[in-house]
Write a structure and sequence with these properties.
There is one protein chain. This protein has a single domain, classed as Rossmann fold, CATH 3.40.50.450. The chain has 5 helices and 6 strands; from the N terminus they run βαβαβαβαβαβ. It has a 6-stranded parallel β-sheet, with helices on both faces. Helix 1 crosses helix 2 and helix 4 packs parallel to helix 5. The longest helix has 19 residues. The chain is globular.
Length: 167
């Protein structure tokens, strides 16, 4: 692996697909956040400094916050927001929109995949992340959907995959 150009992308379920929904104080959510933090630290220890996040609700936000926390101790980390379309957060509740806006503002880089929504923009965002990474961290429940598709695409592309179970 060419560490100079290496990056770590993330895929995981949105909050509505998580067994605990928005309840981030649920012990299962807290455990997943710990697993994400450990995976991010492990990837950093392997020499990767650039992380790419799709900025969705749920697991993406947990990943983004874990990278930002690690960046406080390691300022050589860069974080990229891969945004599928400009209005990604428009239909979200106020709390999630504010959280999203803060996370996006705190990212080092912003990649807007496309200006307006189309049915395939999330898939295009996911492929962008995989195509620009060498490692994929996946918080995955085993159920079909965008996370599974991204995971399968990463396997076909030969990425190293760190799979984190959602229980």
């Amino acid at each position: 692996m060419d560490i100079k150009n290496a990056a770590c992308a993330f895929t995981g379920h949105r909050e509505e697909k998580l067994p605990w929904g928005r309840n981030e104080s649920d012990p299962r959510c807290l455990r997943l956040k710990e697993l994400i933090e450990d995976a991010v630290e492990s990837v950093y220890s392997s020499g990767i400094r650039h992380f790419i996040c799709g900025m969705a609700t749920g697991c993406d936000m947990y990943f983004c916050e874990a990278v930002m926390a690690l960046r406080e101790a390691h300022p050589d980390i860069t974080l990229e927001a891969a945004i599928p379309w400009e209005g990604q957060s428009e239909s979200w509740c106020d709390t999630l929109r504010r959280r999203y806006a803060k996370l996006v503002a705190d990212c080092d880089y912003h990649t807007l995949v496309q200006k307006s929504y189309t049915p395939d923009c999330l898939m295009r965002r996911n492929r962008y992340m995989v195509d620009n990474a060498s490692v994929l961290i996946a918080a995955y429940s085993g159920k079909p959907g965008g996370t599974m598709s991204t995971l399968l695409y990463a396997m076909r592309r030969g990425l190293e995959i760190i799979e984190l179970p959602i229980e």
